[in-house]
Specification:
The chain is α/β, with parallel strands linked by helices. It contains 14 helices and nine strands. It has helices spanning 3-12, 47-54, 74-81, 121-128, 133-144, 165-177, 204-220, 222-231, 255-258, 272-277, 290-303, 318-328, 337-345, 347-366, and strands at 20-24, 60-64, 89-93, 111-115, 150-157, 184-190, 259-262, 267-269, 283-284. Strands 6-5-4-3-2-1-7-8-9 form a nine-stranded mixed beta sheet, with helices on both faces. Strand 1 (20-24), helix 2 (47-54) and strand 2 (60-64) form a beta-alpha-beta unit. Helix 7 (204-220) packs across helix 8 and helix 8 (222-231) packs antiparallel against helix 14 (347-366). It is globular, with a radius of gyration of 20 Å. The termini are far apart.
Length: 372
C-alpha cells in the first residue's frame, strides 16, 4: 500500500496503520540555531515506545528532531535504528556527530539529510552557535561513502543566508556532486512559522538577484547546469520571500491521516504545528493502544476545519494538502504512484531523484568525462 491508497481508506474509517511516521529519537541538540525555537529538554525516546509505534506498520519513516537524533550513545542509536525498516526510511541530522554504525557496512536509513544552512565556516558559527562547519562537511563526505542511498544538504532561506546560495552551490558541486552525482542533492527550504523567532524572510529583490546569479552559473558550465536543474530545488526561491505559502488552505486536513509524529515522550501528533502549539496528542504510545490512537486520528480529520482553527493559521502542510486533495479527485495512476505521491512529501528527496539518472546519462553523452 502507498500513501494515497492509505488516505483513500482513512477518509471513510479509522485504519490501524501509519503513513509517514516522523520519529523523535532525542530532545537534545548541541547547536543553538538562530532560527529554531526548540526547547532542549535532554530526553530520549525509549526503545519500548518505538517498538509499540512500529506495530502500526508505517509505510515510511523519518528520524528527526525534537533534538539531534545522532547525539546518542552508540548502543542506544543502534538499538533504535535496528527497529526501523531500511526501505523508505530517512534520517535528518545536523551532521555534527557521525555514528560509527554507518561505517560498519550497514545503512540503517536509505536517505540522510544534513541541515547545513551556511556556505562557509564564519556564517555557520554565527548561525549555529558552534564552530564545526568543517567537521560537518567531513561527515557529509563520510556519509556519501557509505551504502546510504541518498545524501542531501538542507539550507534554510532567510534574509541573511540567501546571499550565500551561489557559494553553497559551488562548494556542494565541487566537493560532493562531482564524486557522487547519483546520490547527492541540495534542498533549499523556506522558513516555517513554527520554527522561527524574529528571523526575516529574504526580500523579493534579493531573490531575483540570486536567481540571476544562478542563471549565470548555469551558462558557464553544462555540468553545473545539470546539477542545479536536477539536484537542487532553486525554483522554490520564487516564493521564499512570501510570508504565507502560495498554496491556499484546503477544507480538510488530509495530511493528518498519513503523516504522524512520535514525540520523544511517546505522544502521537498529526503535525509539527499541532505538537509545538498544543500539547494534546492523539494518545501516548506508552499507555494508549494503537486502535484508540487511530480512532482519534480519524475523528480529528472529520471534526477539524483548518480554515477556522487558530493552530492551522500558518499551516506548514498547505502544499501537501493541496497535492493530496488533487490526487483524491483525479484518476490515480497506480503505476506511477511512488513518483506522484512522494513528490508531495519531499521535492528533492524523491521527485527529482526519479528523473536524475535519465538526465545524468543525457549530460554525459553531451560532455563525456569533463571532470575525469
Amino acid at each position: 500500500m502507498d500513501h494515497i491508497g492509505l488516505l483513500k481508506e482513512k477518509i471513510d474509517k479509522p485504519v490501524d496503520k501509519f503513513g509517514e511516521l516522523a520519529i523523535h529519537y532525542s530532545d537534545h541538540c548541541q547547536l543553538k540555531c538562530a532560527f529554531c525555537k526548540y526547547n532542549d529538554r535532554k530526553k530520549t525516546l525509549s526503545v519500548n515506545n518505538l517498538k509499540k509505534a512500529m506495530e502500526g506498520s508505517p509505510i515510511s519513516t523519518v528520524i528527526v528532531g525534537g533534538g539531534e537524533p545522532t547525539d546518542l550513545p552508540a548502543a542506544l542509536f543502534s538499538s533504535l535504528s535496528g527497529l526501523i525498516p531500511v526501505n523508505r526510511s530517512k534520517l535528518i541530522t545536523n551532521g555534527v556527530h557521525f555514528q560509527e554504525l554507518f561505517e560498519e557496512d550497514k545503512a540503517p536509513y536509505e536517505h540522510i539529510r544534513v541541515s547545513l544552512d551556511a556556505a562557509n565556516r564564519e556564517t555557520y558559527h554565527k548561525t549555529k552557535g558552534v564552530d564545526c562547519f568543517d567537521m560537518v562537511l567531513d561527515n557529509i563526505t563520510r556519509y556519501l561513502k557509505t551504502r546510504t542511498g541518498i545524501v542531501c544538504i538542507d539550507f534554510v532561506l532567510t534574509e541573511n543566508s540567501i546571499v550565500e546560495i551561489p557559494e553553497l552551490i559551488q562548494v556542494a558541486f565541487e566537493r560532493f556532486f562531482i564524486k557522487h552525482p547519483e546520490k547527492f542533492y541540495v534542498q533549499f527550504k523556506p522558513l516555517n512559522s513554527y520554527f522561527v523567532f524574529d528571523i526575516n524572510r529574504p526580500s523579493k529583490q534579493s531573490v531575483e538577484n540570486i536567481l540571476r546569479q544562478i542563471e549565470a552559473m548555469e551558462k558557464d558550465d553544462i555540468w553545473m547546469r545539470y546539477f542545479i536543474e536536477t539536484h537542487t530545488n532553486t525554483s522554490i526561491l520564487n516564493y521564499s520571500w512570501q510570508k504565507e505559502t502560495i498554496f491556499p488552505m484546503t477544507e480538510k486536513c488530509y495530511a493528518s491521516q498519513i503523516v504522524s509524529i512520535l514525540s520523544v515522550d511517546g505522544g502521537i501528533y498529526p503535525c509539527p504545528d499541532y505538537m509545538y502549539k498544543n500539547d494534546n496528542p492523539f494518545g501516548n504510545i506508552s499507555d494508549t493502544n494503537l486502535k484508540t490512537i487511530f480512532e482519534r486520528q480519524h475523528s480529528f480529520f472529520k471534526d477539524l476545519k483548518p480554515q477556522k482553527h487558530p493552530i492551522c493559521e500558518h499551516c506548514s502542510k498547505k502544499e501537501l494538502n493541496q497535492f493530496l486533495e488533487k490526487m483524491l479527485h483525479t484518476k490515480y495512476n497506480v503505476a506511477n504512484s511512488r513518483l506522484s505521491e512522494l513528490a508531495a512529501f519531499d521535492t528533492i528527496d524523491y521527485f527529482y531523484t526519479r528523473r536524475a539518472p535519465e538526465l545524468l546519462n543525457k549530460y554525459r553523452n553531451v560532455q563525456e568525462n569533463v571532470y575525469g
